[in-house]
Amino acid sequence: MKKILVLLIITLAAFASCKKDDFMDRFVPEVLYYEKDKVENADFTTTTLAAGITEWNVKCRVSAPSKLKEIRLYKTEKGKSEELLETYTDFQLTPNVFNVKYLLENIAAETVIRIDAADLKDHHTVRSFTIKVTP
């Protein structure tokens, strides 16, 4: 009887000491680009500007169930180095969802926009969007 009781106590102690999985740790930030008023196609990752058009409104919905910490917006123009355009860190009004809207001007060559989103648990998601130019 004592052996069963000792075995039961050891088993309970072993289960109690196991680290509990936080369900929210499984979710990373989500980055979705869009063109009109809202996300209509989760696979929207490229566009081609018509001849003579040199501007594009970069629109992106970034969400994180563990609350957003930081969003960085980068631009790489063909043949040039990547540059940081904007850093967003103020999410007090909407801590879980943020809509990035950035007017990109003077687009003369293929340009790649990259968003790096981080949540409070330091999970990162990086997603790119390509703007092609019609010659």
Automatic annotation (TrEMBL):
Keywords: Signal. Residues 1-16 form the signal peptide. This is Uncharacterized protein. It comes from Chitinophaga barathri.
